[in-house]
Amino acid sequence: MDSVVPPGLSLVSVLSLLACSIQVLAAALLTLRYGGQSSAEDRWILLWLFYDVIVHLTLEGPFVYMSLVGTVETSEGPLAELWREYGKADSRWLISDPTIVSIEILTVVLDSMLALLLIHAVLKDKYYRHWLQVALSVCELYGGWMTFCPDWLMGSPHLDTSSRLHMWVYLVFFNGIWVVVPVLLLIQSWISLRRLHTLGQDDHNSPPPPPSSS
Could you tell me which of 108, 12, 103, 21 has the C-alpha nearest to residue 56? Predict the structure, then answer.
């Protein structure tokens, strides 16, 4: 089996990347199922939100459980193998690091709830949609900052950047999308709220209708 694995990749890393692809596919199918009547822009947002919830609940949720009852390093099963693979890039995920586990508890509980509420708000065009979108985006960005900043301040002793796979795929790509997409969502909310404000100002400044002649 190892002979069919591309050079530089292990079987576990290939299966881990395949699992991530399946999550994207599941998010795409949910978007097609529930977001068919939404605008093209909102369908992309729904795709991200469904993927966000799937990752939080199916990957990070089990990580929190394993870290609260033991460690990833001592756990067994496919998800433990997946997290041990990621732990090759950031060893804190192997040892139930208090900062990482604290952030992940917040992510699994609060971010998942906000994302599910935001999916509902986007699909039903609720007035509170952008409040939720801003709140979720800020939470995601805060989580990313607190995941890496403490380690950076110590000289990154837990990060392994010697492997291109660990550096550019595990650390940069899989964490970077939780920076790039929330920033784009914040920009989209800014533009939408500014547009609503402009429409409100135009309505406020428009002259009243002439009195009826009857």
Answer: 108
pLDDT digits over 45-96, tens only?
Answer: 999 999 999 999 999 999 999 999 999 999 999 999 999 999 999 999 999 9
- Give the angle subtended at the CA of 169 by the CAs of 175 and 149, to the nearest 5°: 35
Structure tokens at 36: 């068919």
Helix H or strand E segment including 34: helix 11-34
> What is the value of pTM for the model shown?
0.89
Nearest-angstrom CA–CA distance, 33 and 48: 14
DSSP category for residue 90:
B
- What is the rounded distance in angstroms from the CA atom of residue 122 to the CA atom of residue 115? 10
| Residue 202 to residue 205: CA distance in whole angstroms | 5
| C-alpha–C-alpha distance, residues 143 and 17, integer Å | 22
